Amino acid sequence: MRVLLIEDEHRLAENIVAALRETGLAVDHASDGEAGSHLAEQRVYDAIVLDLMLPGKSGQCVLQDLRRKKLHTPVLILTAQEGKESVVNLLNAGADDYLGKPFDLGELLARIKALIRRAKGVATPILAVSDLELNTVQQSVRRRGRSLDLSPTEYRILEYLIHRPRAVVSQQELLEHLYDFEWEHHSNVIEAHISNLRRKLNAAGSEPLIETLRHRGYRLREPAATP
Amino acid sequence: MTETISITRRLIVTVLVLELLSAISLIVVVAFHERHVQLKAFDASLFATAEMLAGAVQDAEDEADNVMLDLREVQIGKDAAFRVEDERGRLLGSNGEPPDFEVSASGAPVFRNVDVRGRAYRFLVLHRLRIVDPGKPDGGVRHPITIVYGTPVAHVWHEVLEAIRFYAIATAILLGVTAALMIWLLRKGLSPVYELAYEAERINSSDWRFDAPASAKRTVELQPLALALEAALARLQRSFEQQRRFTSDAAHELKTDVAIVKSSLQLLSMRKRTIEEYIRGLTLSLGDFTRLESTVQKMLTLARLEQRTENGSLGAVSHSCSLRDAVEDSVNQIKAFAELKVIDVQIESTVEARVPIDSRDAFLLCSNILLNAVQHSPDGSAVRITMNADEQTVWLTVKDWGEGISEQDRRHLFEPFYRGDPSRSRKSGGTGLGLSICRAVCERAGGTIEIADNTPSGVVVIVTLPAAGLGCGSGLSASLEAQKL
Question: Where are the domains of chain A?
């Protein structure tokens, strides 16, 4: 999952970026409205965290532009402004959630994750496909009741695939959603992670869960129970 | 509760009382006049009837050439009393019971007021000469006749009372009409007051707008009040807005700083970390905390400087210090930062001058101005400081050759938290309180601070301060400082 943070206060941004990365999310950071708008339009994000008071283009403008351009990425607003009125205006302008400063870092992370889940059409933090169970809060994976020891990247790949059941996910898409844009992108990195992930999943259960579609990408197999 | 006073009621009562008084005086005058007129008419009527009685005395056509009274052609009221006598006291005719009156010596007509059977009568005693056969050679027989004629005077008083009654009724109607008319006129005339009050009623803490209604501005008596209200409310609104903005900006600033400190510590406690990670995190958190502390410190400084004494003035300044010392101290302090940016900070000219500012605040003033100058100067440029003084005034100017300040920004530069950028970018590190503090220091000392364009670029900050009690004043403070040492 990849999150865009648009925040001009650099120490706050540093902390939020670090916290998001530690929970296994990829984060891009923009320190003004213009750069933020540009990134949001150029890349695919699963959620955007937007500060209201930004140099140049204000957070409100960024939000309005996004919605006008039919980008439906969930947006969480950070604000130090008082007043219910502005909150109502923001939500009406297309924001999905808001947090007043000073906020609780844990709450911010939980809200971002909830936003991502809801955008994918999932309400609970526990995702299950076939005999596989994935807890997004504990970031733990179990197959047939046995817990699996996955690396953070492997977990993120699996989580992403579970969020898009039956869909073919390309290596490029995985790269975009799993890594910060500063990272060098090598598709063979994904290949290596997928291979490890497959090995760990197969060791725990019987049938292979991840299909490879040549030149197209990967797909999580249909649940076997489904007739 | 104190009794309320109604100007309308007072005005109406005053007018009505005045009107009533004048009506009463009018009635009194009218009554006297009417009585006089009626009495005159009464007397004239007595006289006329008496003359007719005199005319009714005819030749009796007898041997003695006597006279007689022939009343056939004379109309006499039934209440009237009369008596006609000839010179020998012979009664020629009478009616009622006219009293006897002494005949006046002169023979002139005499009026007498007498009560007859309990009724007030007015009598006329008239003397006339009747000559029988005046054509005879001896000139005829002369008969002096005495006529006493009177009628009741009640009639006169009745007329007078009628007149009084007429005027009293007219007055009552006039009073009623006046009262109604005044109530209507005053209500109409006072409507601008009510409109003004209605408009003023709408003012509340969230909406200070006040436009005096046109009716109030048109009314000569209300215009000063309406305009004064408008002006006072506009001033209040400005100061209220300033306060509100300050509070909101201060809250924003503090919340952001607290958010940073909180997130730093929460990030650190998200999971178990190595000692090195903890040390780095704590160092960063301490930095964040220092920043919060500095924001609070500056807010408190500004609050202290702007605190007014009970009588509303900016507290008397009891301290004084050498501005030169403050300038030199702040130059020393900024040196390291200036060297980092390769900026040449020089004091071009200096004089020994004392200003009525606490030495701490003077240092704050100089270091804030210098810090701004150095921050906004490009690397490798210069900052120049000059000091001048005369008997009453001390000037401090700080020039830089930075990017300068737009006309728009310059107007708001001294407002708290203003950073010349709507987003209040904190990258420069300031809280936006520095210049507000500078202005507060200058104003507290009775001085000013201005920012002007420097040529070809950059700005000049000009601080004008009153000199602190030259002569004995400075000597005193100098000796005090000497004692401290």
Answer: 2-119, 126-220
Closest CA to B125 of B145, B143, B109: B109
Kindly report the nearest CA distance between residue B341 and chain A, in angstroms.
Answer: 22
Q: How far apart are the first and last CA of chain A?
A: 31
Q: Do B423 and A22 touch (CB under 8 A)?
A: no
Are A19 and B270 an interchain contact pair (Cβ–Cβ within 8 Å)? yes
pTM: 0.61
The string of pLDDT tens digits covering residues A171-207 is 888 887 777 655 555 667 788 888 888 888 887 666 7
Q: Give, in order, the Cα–Cα distances in Å from B54 to each of A35, B71, B125, B132.
A: 135, 10, 11, 14
| Residue B400: strand pairing partners | B383
Taking an 8 Å cut-off on Cβ atoms, the answer to whether B263 and A106 are in contact is: no
C-beta of residue A36 within 8 angstroms of C-beta of residue A60: no
Tokens describing residue B342: 């390769």
- When the candidates are 1.10.10.10, 3.40.50.1000, 3.20.20.70, 3.40.50.2300, the CATH number that belongs to A2-119 is 3.40.50.2300
Q: What percent of chain B has pLDDT over 70?
A: 91
The pLDDT value given to residue B315: 57
pLDDT 10s digits, B287-319? 999 989 988 998 888 888 887 655 556 555 567
> Which amino acid, one-letter code, is at B79?
D
Q: What is the pLDDT of residues B174-192, one digit of tens each?
A: 999 998 998 899 888 888 8
Q: To the nearest whole angstrom, how far is the Cα of B239 from the nearest Cα of chain A? A: 20
Report the C-alpha gap between B153 and A101 in whole angstroms: 106
In this prediction, residue B465 carries a pLDDT of 92
Say whether domain A126-220 belongs to CATH 2.60.40.10. Answer: no
- pLDDT at B433 > cutoff 90: no
CB-nearest partner of B259 from A22, A55, A102: A102
B266, B268, B274, B292: which to substitute to probe chain A, counting the most A Cβ within 10 Å?
Answer: B266
Please determine, for residue B283, whether its predicted confidence score (pLDDT) is greater than 90: yes
In this structure, which amino acid lies at residue A82?
E
What is the model's pLDDT at position B464?
A: 93
Burial pattern B221-242, b for ≥16 Cβ within 10 A else e, equals ebeeebeebbeebeeeeeeeee
Strand A47-51 versus strand A26-30 pairing type: unpaired
> What is the complex's ipTM, to 2 decimals?
0.71
Distance CA B210, CA B234 (A): 8
